[in-house]
Design a protein that fits this description.
- The chain starts with a helix and ends in a 9-residue tail after the last helix.
- With 89 residues, the chain is α/β, with parallel strands linked by helices.
- Helix content is 39%, strand content 13%.
């Protein structure tokens, strides 16, 4: 139920960002072709390089590694050389 809720919340954020004029893609580690794309780091990178915001729902399909502050997204940010990461809980 919690994983599905992250998709619902991600779609709500995407709708808001699209209305604000920011192209946005939602990706998920769990395939849900009717509502969002499947997460792939290369696909996410291509969207980011194209100037789109990427929202990742349901994780990225790997074990969670936390930094010392309890943020798993920090590892992805470092690996992907991203300028900003926002994590909702």
């Amino acid at each position: 139920m919690g994983m599905l809720a992250t998709v619902i919340n991600s779609l709500a954020v995407q709708d808001y960002l699209l209305k604000a004029g920011l192209e946005t893609e939602v990706l998920s580690a769990i395939p849900m072709a009717q509502v969002c794309g499947v997460y792939d780091q290369y696909k996410a990178d291509a969207f980011l390089r194209a100037g789109k915001a990427v929202i990742i729902a349901c994780g990225v399909g790997v074990s969670l590694f936390l930094d010392r502050y309890g943020h798993g997204s920090a590892r992805r940010r470092i690996e992907g050389r991203r300028g900003a990461v926002r994590q909702g809980r």
